[in-house]
Amino acid sequence: MKKMLALVIAALLALSASAFAEIYRADDITFQYDEKAFEVSMDDRTDDETTVVLHGKDEAWGNTFISFYLKDLDDGEKFPTMAEMSQIPDTTVTQGDWNGYKNVFMYTLEYDDGTSEHFFIAPVMDDDGNEVDNLLTVHIGVSKVEDESIAMARDDAISAVVDSLKVDD
Q1: Alpha carbon of 161 to those of 19, 38, 79, 132, 138: distances in Å?
Q2: Of the candidates 89, 145, 90, the residue with the CA atom closest to the CA atom of residue 113
Q3: Is residue 2 part of a domain?
Q4: Domain coverage including residue 112
Q5: Is the residue at 10 inside a domain?
Q6: CATH number of the domain bearing residue 93
Q7: pTM over cut 0.70
Q8: pLDDT tens readout for residues 142-151
Q9: Does residue 33 sit within a domain?
């Protein structure tokens, strides 16, 4: 019993060491992020487009970022098709479920220097769930990290942010 209590206390102390920001809101994009791990910036491109970017603060992570881009689809604009997405050079596009979204396009670009970019393009449905109202693009960039424990910590921090992502339209 004492061992279990010690583990619970250790877990609570570890959680309190992370400085999670309150839910961040940029128009309709909501997520949580660790202020010790990321800094956030926002770029409003037009009235119907929003980009929020988190940059990794830890120099050992290299160039790490998570970009959330939400675009209202105007009348006549449609969610892309697999045929359209398959035109992206030097990659294989797959489609499936991701982070609670259905029919998401996913692909990765890998570079000779060990860096990679991961893309998730998700349809965001209208309130009735009948048609695609917005296009959500999540773009994650990571550098090659030789130290496996640092790479795992970085990947866990990225996963925590992405897992908390919500789009309210």
Answers
A1: 13, 10, 25, 24, 11
A2: 145
A3: no
A4: 20-167
A5: no
A6: 3.40.1000
A7: yes
A8: 999 999 999 9
A9: yes
